[in-house]
User: What shape does this take?
Amino acid sequence: MAITEKITNTMKPTFWEGHIPVNYVYTYGHAGEKFFRAIKDKGTFLATYCSACDISYVPPKIYCDRCFTKLDRYIDVGTRGFIETFTVSFMNMDGSRKERPRILAMIRIVGTDGGLIHYIEGIGPDEIALGMPVQAVFKPKGKRTGAIDDIIGFGPVTRGRK
Amino acid sequence: MGYRKVAIVGAGITKFVRRAQETAKELAWQATKMALDSCELTLDDVDCVTLGTAPDAFDGVHMKGEYLADGAGAFRKPYMRHYVGGGTGIFSPIHGWFHVASGMADICLVVTEEKMSSCYPHPQGAFITIFDHTTEQPLKPTLIWIFALEMNRYMSTYGISKRDIALVSVKNKKNALDHPSAQLGGEITVDDVLNSEVLAWPVNRLDVSPASDGAAAIVLASERVARRLTDKPVWIDGVGFSLDTAYWATRDLCYPTYVENAARMAYDMAGITEPHKEIHVAEPYDPFDYKELHHMEGLMLCPKGEAARMTADGVTQRDGNLPTCPSGGALGVGNPIAATGLMKIIEIFLQLRGDAGKRQVPGKPRCGLAQAWGDLMQVGTVVVMRI
Assistant: This one.
């Protein structure tokens, strides 16, 4: 066996500090441009659909990953979904405790095979269940920038809205 | 199918620790040297080297393969690095297998190394970059979440409780007490697991493997050379690997189809038709306790949704009918990503040779399997071995 000693204090061996100075500017891509513009301007989700494989993509893709067909017809699929699975997160990324736990869920958008990962708002950890219907809650139109955080989260379904 | 037979003839492994004094290269050298010594070879005998190591961001060196080359014994040799997330360590022997099975090399050194502790305060900072930068990273995900989402889906689909799942952690950490490399071996109870800190429900701290530093290495040889080197070559009889889409929110997480695809590929090659009878000892990947169960099902070692019952019945204990993770697994030995997979390969190598010491499963096992999983719930890698 190796001679390595068991070190439980990670800062015990002598160390020096480093960091990597990198920043990024990402493009949305062709499908992403349409998806996020629909969120920003209309407060709705778009999908693409492959008729050969009978599968729909949310967020949309410009190709079908099964058959590689080009997909260029965008369908408004509304903002409702149901909870495929969820977790209640108690920790921040650095290992510290969150002030209040946050619920994160995988939401399957109604009528599609696609889904989004996002926060759940307005439903408590004791009330939430798999299969529960939810709908997207957006920031006010004027404050949207065309990004995933234009969606505040998914909350209970209210009457009237699609 | 025109492949040459390939055997494992030697192995080496460092201790798995939370923080190693050694640099990444020194860890790689320790394991590699140990593997060569175990079969009385020197670097001159080695035709080529393959290296498995996980994200460059752990070390902050964006040419990690090249960086580690000298520690891995690749000085002026043909050398390639491979990386498929957590599935890397089982892809490592597959990558080496190509070199020998194809006739390119007679002796191939396969090295895996991970030093996660350099990434400060925790490698979660690196893990966030596996998520989609536009749709997911802004939500500040941690790696724990995707496991929590999958675990919840798995539990809900099959009606499995946290108590059923905790048994895996209890078993593996106990098994690890007998592993000289182990970081987190221990006698714990189901209640210890259930009462440990909740990280992201349903995941508690003791459901999770640790971040670790460590390295492992094996020596692969062609049939002609292997028979000269050892009386107990362990043959790689089947290899399989499969990737699902990183568009993971479109899938049902209750079943790992990609693991089944990889297993079918490996079983076909090894001529295995009834895995639950023909596999005598298995090392499914267990970065989280429920993952061992999830993977046993994907590997078709039991019907879907039945792995928890098998565990509760003691079938997967070392003296059970189908021992799983007799090493102690990632939960007990530790989880230096790429090195974990190769640790599992080494465990099956030792078990089949009857050299596993206190960890030896009874009944002279002749066929074993190791599997790993990785990336966004999408990678399955499987190796079937026989003595």
Q: What stands out?
A: Residues 337-353 of chain B form the longest helix (17 residues).
